[in-house]
Design goal:
With 410 residues, the protein is α/β, with parallel strands linked by helices. 42% of the residues lie in helices and 16% in strands. The chain has three domains: 33 residues, no CATH class; 234 residues, Type I PLP-dependent aspartate aminotransferase-like (Major domain) (Aspartate Aminotransferase, domain 2); 103 residues, Aspartate Aminotransferase, domain 1 (Alpha-Beta Complex), CATH 3.90.1150. The strands form three sheets. Strands 3-9-8-7-6-4-5 form a seven-stranded mixed sheet, with helices on both faces. A three-stranded mixed sheet has the order 1-2-11. It has a three-stranded antiparallel sheet with strand order 10-13-12, with helices on one face. Helix 8 runs parallel beside helix 9. The protein is globular, with a radius of gyration of 22 Å. It starts with a helix and ends in a 5-residue tail after the last helix. The structure holds pyridoxal-5'-phosphate. Pyridoxal-5'-phosphate binds next to helix 5.
């Protein structure tokens, strides 16, 4: 039975390899941090073939660890203490017997952070977005979605019967056109990422909100790459545009700036959250997050509201990096986040450049078509509050060295 299917899969895999799109996992053998070690040949999962592994120390510029909390001692202690007090797992979905006080407290803390009415937790933001639209809208309604929205928003929209409209990334004239068409429907939701992950640009939330008022639409913002990062105190795009409490639906993740573990959430208007608790499928049919993760989540928000040190350092680091890289002659996309797209345009060059940087001890990822448009290949650098000035300088020096060798800098 398997033979035909196996051949079919092998053919597909070969096509992926030949197109140069095959993804190999790079194995890290330290905690996630700004300083990590990667294994240069990965150990086999069944314990065979070990011994050929050597360690390569690198400075990490490709994690979503924006605030450097992924190995934070206070979070680790909070997780350990709650695991001792409340056990390892919940073995249940939330509404049967998977809700502890820890989950309720984390939901309250997230609502306080965003200035919203209520919050619902999910196993991941992928689930939050996947389970968002279908319970709220029917074929009578419309979703107007930014063309560069995250895959999970796209999947969530697909799972919903609402009429779909798409507007070009951040293009307000196009959004207005689509909103005009969507007047044919009953209710309308505009869906957008807060920060777009490939360029690091922020959505024009103030203008989106104005159009939403004009054309009678609700607004949904996914703050996964923006919460903890954007805004003076890291409260995300609603802080940046001074719009706290105005947006009906915000989704986000605990897997990036907020500790880098797992967990997602939807936060916003009370009735929306209430209906999601009744009807959202990833919430109803998927396990509760472990108490230790929820407890570390609570601690994360405590750390971030206690002091602005991490947000300040992240903003300083990003501004420093962008300024020095531009001064060195690199072309960096306009960014309002901690994502810096160093433009190289050529796909092969982006891969060569990233490989050469790794030899210099700088760990980054090169992106090219189809992840970004054709002719828009780049290296994405993600700055963290955990980076020291020395680490940033090493990165800039390595970029300059390789850029000169590869003819990018004249
Ligand atoms: C990372 C990301 C997600 C997925 O978050 P997980 O919690 O890892 O599932 C969703 N939306 C956006 C915009 C993201 O960047």
């Amino acid at each position: 039975m398997y033979q035909d299917f196996q051949q079919h899969l092998q053919k597909t895999l070969n096509e992926i390899r030949e197109a140069g799109l095959y993804k190999n996992e790079r194995v890290i053998i330290t905690p996630q941090s700004s300083d990590i070690k990667v294994a240069t040949s990965s150990p086999s999962p069944c314990g065979e073939g070990q011994g050929g592994v050597s360690e390569l120390p690198v400075i990490n510029f490709c994690a979503n660890n924006y605030l450097g909390l992924a190995d934070n001692k206070e979070l680790i202690e909070a997780a350990k203490a709650r695991m001792d007090a409340r056990g390892y797992g919940m073995a249940s979905v939330r509404f049967i017997c998977g809700t502890q006080d820890t989950h309720k407290e984390l939901e309250r803390v997230i609502s306080d952070f965003f200035g919203t009415e209520d919050t619902i937790l999910y196993a991941a933001c992928f689930d939050a977005n996947g389970g968002l639209f279908e319970p709220l809208l029917t074929e009578e309604d419309a979703i107007i979605s930014d063309a560069l929205n995250h895959a999970s928003i796209i999947d969530g929209v697909r799972l919903c019967k609402a009429v779909r409209y798409r507007y070009a990334n951040g293009d307000m004239a196009d959004l207005e056109e689509q909103l005009k068409k969507a007047q044919a429907q009953r209710f309308r939701i505009i869906a957008t990422d807060g920060v777009f992950s490939m360029d690091g640009n922020v959505c024009p939330l103030d203008k989106i909100y104005e159009l939403a008022q004009k054309y009678n639409a609700l607004v949904m913002v996914d703050e996964s790459h923006s919460a903890g990062v954007v805004g003076k105190t890291g409260h995300g795009v609603t802080e940046l545009y001074n719009m706290r409490g105005k947006i009906e639906i915000i989704t986000g993740t605990l897997g990036k700036a907020f500790g880098g573990s797992v967990g997602g959430f939807t936060t916003g208007k009370k009735e929306i959250i209430d209906l999601l608790r009744q009807r959202s499928r990833p919430y109803l049919f998927s396990n509760s997050i472990p108490p230790m993760i929820a407890a570390a989540g609570i601690k994360t928000f405590e750390i971030l509201t206690r002091s602005n040190e991490l947000q300040d350092r992240l903003h300083e680091n990003t501004a420093y990096f962008v300024e020095k890289m531009r001064a060195a002659g690199f072309d960096i996309k306009p960014t309002q986040s901690a994502i810096c797209a160093v433009m190289l345009y050529d796909a092969r060059l982006s891969q060569e450049f990233a490989a050469a940087l790794q030899k210099e001890g700088i760990y980054v990822t090169g992106f090219y078509y189809p992840v970004v448009p054709k002719g828009q290949a780049r290296i994405r650098v993600q700055v963290s509050a955990a980076h020291t000035r020395e680490q940033l300088d090493k990165c800039i020096a390595a970029f300059t060295k390789i850029g000169t060798i590869l003819g990018v800098l004249k």
